[in-house]
From TrEMBL:
Membrane-crossing residue ranges in chain numbering: 12-38, 44-70, 82-104, 110-131, 170-197, 203-230, 242-259, 271-292
InterPro entries from the UniProt entry: TM_pro_TauE-like, TSUP/Inactive_protease-like
Listed name of the protein: Probable membrane transporter protein
Topology of this chain in the membrane: Multi-pass membrane protein
UniProt keyword annotation of Transmembrane helix present: yes
Predominant location category: membrane
Gene Ontology CC: one annotated term: plasma membrane
Alphabetical list of Pfam families matching this protein: TauE
Keywords tagged on the record: Cell membrane, Membrane, Transmembrane, Transmembrane helix
UniProt lineage: Bacteria, Pseudomonadati, Pseudomonadota, Alphaproteobacteria, Rhodospirillales
UniProt-annotated location(s): Cell membrane; Membrane
Amino acid sequence: MQVYLPIAELSVNALLLLGLGGIVGFLSGLFGVGGGFLMTPLLIFIGIPPAVAVGTQANQLVGASVSGVLGHWRRNNVDVKLGLVMLAGGAVGTVLGVWLFGLLQTLGHIDLAIGLSYVFFLGVISSLMLWESVRALLRGRDAAVAKAKMHHHTWLHGLPFKVRFPRSRLYVSVLLPGGIGFVGGVLVAIMGIGGGFMLVPAMIYLLGMPTAMVAGTSLFQIIFTTGIAAFAQATFNHTVDILLALLLLVGGVIGAQFGSRAGTKLRGEQARALLALMVLAVAVKLAVDLVVRPDDLYSVTLPLPV
């Protein structure tokens, strides 16, 4: 069943879009990530213009994240206080990112910027996550041992403005979660992602949050930053295709419910290893597309007959 996307200016199979939304929604609930790291490249792979894929993806992330948070909220796995601190930084980062997105679009460099950003961030973070997860699994360390190691103090724990977060049993500077949220907000605007692939490991390794609390808290913050990004992209950059967003949203909301249930059956190391493998695969595919010679090097427009 083909549907025409007015902003993207092409026809796409509606069932394909629903299926992509469902898969990404499942991953959102399973790993506590918005899933944009996978959805945006998939949209680009099926022919959606990168700028439209980024702008529209933020809308889908709002629905998928809300659905995922509800599942974690029922299990009391959301630290609202910490999430609000991250949101404060995320809001500032999102506004800055949307402005930068518009500037790159005006200069004609937005497609290249999106591709390079994905290859760099996804490649580096997935490699680090995979290395740590595989090493933990091979050594047979359980979550308790890993958690103890995460709580070793570094210079980051000496930062000022410390606040207690009872739900996560943390006493850290608000600059840490605020800074993490800021970077996540920039990524939402530039790459069309919730930033969960960066937020989740940062919350685990920098803040030392319990793994069970990370997914729900991450999604709680992602709801609002993606909402701000979606509104700003539609208003200032005009890159949001409502029909595309609606199809992705329907599939995402359904998939997130199944993902949040499946997430309770995975150990922390297993979940991180699976997430790292998927992120790395996407990074490799994007890198290959950037360097491989395309089938059509030029687009030639013939003059109209006189």
